[in-house]
Amino acid sequence: MKTRKLLMIPGPTPVARSIQEQMGRETVAFGDPAFVKDFKELLEDLKSLFNCSGEVFVVAGTGTMGMEMAIANTTKAGDNVLIVSHGFFGDRFIDLCSRKGLNADVISSEWGETVPVEKIKEKLKEKKYAAMTVTHVDTSTGVCAPVAEIGKMMKEFPETIYIVDGVCATAGEPEDVDAMGIDILFTGSQKAFGVAPGLTMLWASGKALERRKSLGSIPEFYIDFEKWLPVMKDTAKYFATPAINMIWALKESVRIIKEEGIENRYARHRKTGTAMQAALEALGFRILAKEGCRAATLSNPVYPEGVDDAKFRGLLAEEGIMVAGGLAAYAGRMFRLGHMGNIDKHDMISVIAAVERALYRAGMPVELGKGVGVVQQHLIDS
Ligand SMILES: *Cc1c(COP(=O)(O)O)cnc(C)c1O
């Protein structure tokens, strides 16, 4: 018998059966009154769950499209943009912004650390920035940025649109659009929402919508807020075909989130992150992200001396767990383990147990049950 494979990469994440069922439904017309109602309810829920008094957009696409949509609707060629980067996905904004003819300034941290808020503030004082981007959780490093604290500081720079890449965070790490002063937050369906890839969700504050209006006509068409606003206000309207089955799937994910309670969901993610990271450390891994800025949604463990990455991940896959490799300078030195979305206690135990077996099979000295014991203790203690 073949061992079932658990998908523990940092997106796509495991898709619950009830969500899969929504994708398998017979597709209806986008003007079907039942679908129009479902879509409308979904948008209302998304606005209230993340406390956004502006507008939410749900459009077929991925996280990267969210990045592009955020920049396209808030800047024009020649504008200054400040990119706060904590790794690979922060850096992705550099090329994206340069292609649009923006002057992109980058302020980066060492991998595993965050840029101090004071340093961001000093940079913002240097010139007028049309927008600033911050990656909430950079998947390449497992670092979580202090988005609330940055938002508070941003009150001193009202002319700068505060963009938060929530692709590896939203629905797993606490986010509150209005209270945190976020102007644009976006994510993709396949990360902490636990839906298959295919949807971009983007929340825009009143200030961001005003900025879009002030730009007049923009070069982009499909990702223009102005094109989608009529649809988001009245889901019976057409601009481009909504991803009907994916919207149903997302609606089911939101039902699961509401049933759990968003605060409980955040607490569960925090507990999962702490437990997994402690267990990995007990097994001899070093967590790349420094204590105090570790994400709850994924872990980036650096291998102990003597472990071959390709071999280890191959063994781990044989043991039933799919993880991702390290990026850039950490390729071959680290793996990336997602633990966000709709995963439970069974999954956590299975993952750590499989990591132990893979280490053992790789010839590493490992005390079987040590990591599992740590996870168990965390699960019992809380
Ligand atoms: C996954 C990810 C992206 C890219 O999302 P795609 O859906 O692959 O386009 C962007 N930012 C972060 C932080 C991510 O984790």
Fold blueprint:
Blueprint (H helix, E strand, L loop, with lengths): L5 E2 L9 H7 L9 H17 L5 E6 L2 H10 L7 E6 L2 H12 L3 E6 L8 H10 L4 E5 L1 E2 L4 E2 L2 H8 L6 E5 L18 E5 L10 E6 L1 H9 L10 H9 L10 H17 L1 H21 L3 E2 L10 E2 L1 E2 L6 H10 L2 E2 L1 E2 L9 E4 L6 H17 L8 H12 L1
The structure holds pyridoxal-5'-phosphate.
Task: Quickly describe the structure.
The protein is an alpha/beta fold and 382 residues long. Helix content is 42%, strand content 15%. It has 13 helices and 16 strands.
Textual characterization of the structure:
This protein is globular. The protein has helices spanning 17-23, 33-49, 63-72, 88-99, 117-126, 147-154, 206-214, 225-233, 244-260, 262-282, 309-318, 345-361, 370-381, and strands spanning 6-7, 55-60, 80-85, 103-108, 131-135, 137-138, 143-144, 161-165, 184-188, 199-204, 286-287, 298-299, 301-302, 321-322, 324-325, 335-338. The model has no long low-confidence stretch (mean pLDDT 97). Helices cover 42% and strands 15% of the residues. With 382 residues, the protein is an alpha/beta fold. Strand 3 (80-85), helix 4 (88-99) and strand 4 form a beta-alpha-beta unit. The protein folds into 2 domains: 6-12 and 262-381, Aspartate Aminotransferase, domain 1; 17-260, Aspartate Aminotransferase, domain 2 (3-Layer(aba) Sandwich). The site of pyridoxal-5'-phosphate has 12 residues, from helix 3.
